[in-house]
Design brief:
The protein is α+β, with helices and mostly antiparallel strands and 104 residues long. The chain has helices spanning 12-18, 38-41, 50-55, 65-76, 93-98; strands spanning 22-26, 32-33, 62-63, 80-84.
Length: 104
């Protein structure tokens, strides 16, 4: 009895080009450590502008190494990254400032 011919395996390079992958990453807690700021900026719930002051600290916040490594690893394998945040658009510069892969 003869064996059935092997089914050809698809070329993974072609599949990758046909199906780009996307990772949706959360800004706070994965990419940016805002832990030091809420205690004194958000404590007074009646204070006008408290969220604006809190978000103003975004560029001062330390990047989270594991999150930055994840973004770079995903970029190396060709995944596209998108960042999810409820932050105002004016605070988005911090993503590029802290770890967007070169040329992105």
């Amino acid at each position: 009895m003869s064996e059935a011919p092997a089914t050809p395996r698809p070329d993974k390079t072609k599949i990758h080009r046909l199906r780009p992958y996307v990772a949706l990453l959360d800004f706070d807690g994965l990419l940016c450590d805002m832990e030091p700021f809420p205690a004194y900026e958000l404590a007074d719930r009646e204070s006008p502008g408290r969220w604006r002051r809190f978000f103003g600290h975004t560029s001062e916040a330390a990047p989270i190494a594991a999150g930055m490594e994840l973004v770079q690893a995903l970029d190396r394998v060709g995944w596209h990254c998108s960042v999810s945040s409820t932050r105002p658009s004016w605070s988005g510069h911090a993503v590029a400032h802290h770890g967007e892969p070169e040329g992105k």
